[in-house]
What we know:
By secondary structure, the chain is of the alpha+beta class. Helices cover 19% and strands 17% of the residues. It has eight helices and twelve strands. Strands 1-2-12-11-7-8 form a six-stranded antiparallel beta sheet. Strands 3, 4, 5, 6, 9 and 10 form a six-stranded antiparallel beta sheet that branches. It is globular.
Amino acid sequence: xxxxxxxxACPSCEEPLESGDLFCGACGYDLSAVPxxxxxxxxxxxxxxxxxxxxxxxxxxxxxxxxxxxxxPTDLPGTDSAGTELAEPDEYPLPAPEATAVPxxxxxxxxxxxxxxxxxxxxxxxxxxxxxxxRSGRVDPDGYCENCGHAQPRERDHMEQELDTVAAVxxxxxxxxxxxxxxxxxxxxxxxxxxAVVAIVCDGVSSATRPDEASLAASRAANESLQxxxxxxxxxxxxxxxxxxxxxxxxxxxxxxPTSAREHGPHQNAPACTLVGAVVAGGLLVIGWVxxxxxxxxxxxxxxxxxxLTEDDSWAAQxxxxxxxxxxxxxxDERAHAITxxxxxxxxxxxxxxxxxxxxxxxxVVVCTDGLWNYAEAVDEMARAVPADAAVRPLHSxxxxxxxxxxxxxxxxxxxxxxxxxxxxxxxxxx
Length: 431
């Protein structure tokens, strides 16, 4: 049996610990759940783009709002706004420290009862919430166990959702005290009755104020925008562009606080997040993004290449695009993951990135935050991490990918959506 790591400070809130502590006295973190430090850094290799797929161009749509023609993966620019100055590595000042709830006192351990003579625990009343730590104590309205005092997981610590054609999973990870990611998945119908599938994933910027609120507002606003535009017949790529703008408006609105609120936190910055989304509709795969959350194409049969469909809005990506560094040098720099594009009131001029594809085979789209791709950055690593049956078991596959990140160290929140892309060969019809 492995020993519990000896820690000097809580990995969740950094409160000093004493020898033998089982729970953090400040935030209630379960210290027995702290994994051993990984032997190697999860960062490792730089992102690879793989060989270009020979995907045919999508047909032009006959409407006035038709966006640019479909792109191949190798056509994607690093940024849509040429000549934009690089952001400084530290975009945001650190927010003021949050107040931390003090857990209730943990009762002294009692002598273990003889299981042969002890009376069985009474069945709790219906609807009673039991502690996730001791599995016997009831949880009080404040979110703490009445038996062992353990702080209970919050609703957003782990979320799962599955529809017929898409699934998503989000987890707090093993190092953060809250989940600042959010997602939205949904289905819609085009005017001709054919289905459309939507997946939006957002990652709150931790150095900004209220990042969890920003990601939630952005994911909901983008999803609602697409749900309104696709049934009206708006081209999916144009609909994705407009959805990102709607998400930006929702995050900007969070910065419009009352004057009294700003007086209590005058140095707080505006809420901010990244966004990546995918729409499968009308035989097209449409991707949109701002920031460093990513989308990967993984074919079912693995006979074709796995392709990264997005280019990060990050310091490293811009160094590589400018020819100032190669990928290995750029991603080894401590500034590599400083983002140069985001949604928020203090963002630079927003120019959403969008691209459309028409795959020639069946596969899945993996839409994720950097909490996953930090542990599967190269396309071949992502291909190995995605289960072979991902197209028919998207929820299971999303769970496996989140587990992959947690097994790798779980240093960040992890959110993954898996979207199958159906492919009907030419001439195929119903029997």
